[in-house]
Design brief:
Elements lengths: L2 H13 L3 E2 L2 H6 L15 E4 L3 H14 L3 E4 L16 E4 L6 E5 L4 E4 L5 H8 L4 E2 L12 H7 L6 H4 L6 E7 L5 E5 L11 H5 L8 E8 L1 E2 L6 E7 L2 H14 L5 E5 L1 H10 L10 E7 L4 H14 L3 E5 L2 H12 L1 H8 L1 E4 L2 E2 L5 H15 L5 E4 L4 E8 L8 H4 L20 H16 L15 H8 L1 H14 L14
Parallel strand pairs: 2-4, 3-4
Antiparallel strand pairs: 1-2, 5-6, 6-10, 7-11, 8-9, 8-10, 12-14, 12-15, 13-14, 13-18, 16-19, 17-19, 18-19
Helix pairs in contact: 1-3, 8-13, 9-12, 13-15, 16-17
C-alpha cells in the first residue's frame, strides 16, 4: 500500500462515507471561482459533518504529515482553497447550522458552511441581519467570508467581516479545539487571536464555529441613485467628493466604461454611451431621502447625470447590474480577477494609473470599485498562454489555466498580463494602498506580499504560521511564496 493510499484508508476507517474519492468530487476540489485549478486531484474530499470530523481529519493529517486545504463553497477568487496532488480537501460546507440566535444580545452562533443569504433570511424574522455583503452573498459561506476577511457592497457604512465577528471556534493543526474571542461587545483579555484568524485563509486553523455580531434591520426606505459620467476619472472624483461631503451612503459602486458595457451586453440592456462610467449609490435609514438629495447635489455638481428612485425593486435592479460583473467577465473569456485598495481620495489617481497601464501594455482592464471604501477590482481579460508566462514566479494561473499544488502552472497567464498586473499592484502600493482589500492572497498575490509587508513583518508573520502549524500541513503554498 502506498503512503497516499494509507492516508485514505485511515480517513475511511475514522470517517466512513464522509470520505469522498469520486472523480467528480476530486475534480471539483481542484478549483475555485478564480478559474485557477490544480492539475492533479487531491487524495480525498472529507465532507465534515461535525467538529469531531474535523478533529479526526487533522489528527490523521498531522500524524502522516499530509497537507489539508479547507474548503467551503469554493467561491474564492485567489486560489486559496484549491486542493492538489497529495492533499486532503476538508469541506466544511455541510456544517451549516444556526446554533443559536440571541436577539437581546445581538449575536448569532453559526457553523461555517452556512450561506450568507440563507443566514440573513433566517435572521430577518428576528428583525436582525449580519452586515457583510459580498457580491457572492447568494453562494458564499460565512466560513469562507471569515477565511478571506471578505467585505462587499455595504462595508463602507457597516464594516467588513472583521467588524462583525466576536468569537471563533477553531480546530488547530493537531486536532485540538480552541475557543477564541467572546460573546460580549467588549473584550480585551490576551491577544486578539480572533482577528488574527480572520483573513488567514486556512493557514492557521480550521474555523468550525463563529459568534457573529448582528445589527437590527435598518428602518425606513432605501433610496438608490444612478449617476452617469463622461469618463471613469470624473466618476471617481465624484465618489471622492461624496466621501468628503460627510454623507455616508450604504452602497457606492463604480463601474468603468468597459465593465459597464460588458454587463449591459450580458443582460441585453441598451448599450451605454461610449466611454461612460456609472456610480450606483444607495442610502438607507430614516434619513435616506435627505441623504440621497444631498448626494445627488454633489454628483450633479461633479458633472454627473443623476437619477434617483425610491422604489426598492428598481433599486435592486440597478444593483443587479453591478452584481453581474463577474459573469460578464466570464463571458468575455479568460480573466485574471484582481483586488487592490487605495485611500478613497486616491481613487481618481488609481484610475489614472489603470489608464496608463492600458495604454502602455495595449490591453483593456475592465474595472469596478467599491468606491465607498476605495477597493477596486481590475479584470485582465486575455487568451491563455501555453508556455511563456511567469506563473511559477507569481504563484498562479488564470481562467482556463491550471496550477500545480504549489501554484506553478501549465497553461499560463501571458507574460505581458503579469507585467501589467505587477505594474498595477505597485501603483496601488505607491498610492498608499494594499494588494488585496477582500479576496485574500491565496496563490495569486504571494509574489508581492513581501513588498507590501516589508521584510521584518513578513518574517514575523511566517513565524506566527510556524507556531500554529509546526508540521506545515495547513494550506501549504498559500499566502507565503517560500
Amino acid at each position: 500500500m502506498t503512503a497516499s493510499a494509507g492516508v485514505v484508508a485511515q480517513l475511511r476507517e475514522a470517517l466512513g462515507e464522509r470520505v469522498d474519492t469520486s472523480p467528480e468530487a476530486l475534480n471539483e476540489a481542484r478549483a475555485d471561482k478564480s478559474g485557477h485549478a490544480a492539475p492533479e486531484a487531491p487524495l480525498a474530499v472529507v465532507r465534515a459533518a461535525s467538529v469531531a470530523d474535523v478533529q479526526q481529519t487533522l489528527r490523521i493529517a498531522t500524524a502522516t504529515a499530509t497537507p489539508v486545504v479547507t474548503r467551503g463553497a469554493g467561491t474564492g477568487l485567489a486560489g486559496a482553497a484549491n486542493t492538489g496532488g497529495g492533499e486532503i480537501a476538508l469541506s466544511v460546507r455541510g456544517m451549516d447550522r444556526i446554533v443559536e440566535v440571541r436577539a437581546d444580545d445581538l449575536i448569532a452562533v453559526v457553523e461555517p458552511g452556512i450561506i450568507n443569504a440563507d443566514l440573513n433570511a433566517a435572521l430577518a424574522p428576528h428583525g436582525l441581519w449580519w452586515a457583510p455583503d459580498p457580491a457572492s452573498r447568494a453562494i458564499s459561506t460565512v466560513g469562507g467570508n471569515i477565511a478571506t476577511g471578505a467585505g462587499g457592497l455595504l462595508c463602507a457604512k457597516y464594516g467588513v467581516v472583521r467588524d462583525a465577528v466576536l468569537g471563533l471556534d477553531v480546530v488547530l493543526a493537531d486536532g485540538r479545539l480552541v475557543r477564541l474571542g467572546h460573546r460580549t461587545v467588549k473584550g480585551v483579555a490576551g491577544y486578539d487571536l480572533t482577528s488574527l484568524m480572520i483573513g488567514s485563509e486556512g493557514t492557521l486553523g480550521v474555523v468550525v464555529g463563529a459568534t457573529l455580531k448582528l445589527r437590527r434591520l435598518v428602518p425606513g426606505a432605501v433610496c438608490t441613485l444612478a449617476a452617469t459620467f463622461a469618463d471613469v476619472r470624473a466618476a471617481a472624483a465624484a465618489s471622492a467628493a461624496v466621501t468628503a461631503s460627510g454623507v455616508q451612503p450604504a452602497v457606492m459602486e463604480l463601474m468603468d466604461a468597459a465593465s459597464l458595457a460588458a454587463v449591459h451586453a450580458l443582460l441585453a440592456l441598451p448599450a451605454p454611451a461610449e466611454g461612460a462610467a456609472q456610480l450606483t449609490i444607495q442610502t438607507d435609514g430614516p434619513a435616506a431621502a435627505a441623504e440621497a438629495d444631498a448626494i445627488a447635489a454633489v454628483l450633479s455638481g461633479a458633472g454627473g447625470e443623476v437619477a434617483v428612485t425610491h422604489d426598492a425593486a428598481e433599486g435592486e435592479r440597478l444593483l443587479a447590474i453591478r452584481r453581474s460583473m463577474h459573469p460578464a467577465m466570464e463571458a468575455l473569456g479568460t480573466t485574471l480577477i484582481e483586488d487592490v485598495a487605495v485611500p478613497r481620495s486616491a481613487l481618481p489617481a488609481m484610475f489614472d494609473e489603470i489608464a496608463r497601464i492600458e495604454r502602455e501594455y495595449g490591453i483593456v482592464i475592465p474595472t469596478v470599485a467599491h468606491a465607498g471604501d476605495g477597493n477596486l477590482h481590475p479584470n485582465f481579460v486575455f487568451a491563455p498562454s501555453t508556455g511563456s508566462g511567469t506563473a511559477a514566479d507569481s504563484g498562479a494561473s488564470a481562467g482556463s489555466g491550471t496550477a500545480t499544488d504549489s501554484g506553478t502552472a501549465t497553461d499560463l497567464v501571458p507574460e505581458h498580463i503579469w507585467a501589467a498586473a505587477d505594474d498595477l499592484f505597485r501603483a496601488a502600493l505607491r498610492l498608499g494602498g494594499t494588494l488585496t482589500g477582500e479576496h485574500g492572497v491565496g496563490v495569486l498575490k504571494r509574489r508581492w506580499l513581501r513588498d507590501e509587508l516589508g521584510d521584518d513583518q513578513w518574517q514575523l508573520q511566517r513565524a506566527i504560521k510556524q507556531v500554529f502549524d509546526p508540521v506545515g500541513i495547513l494550506n501549504p503554498g498559500k499566502v507565503f511564496d517560500a
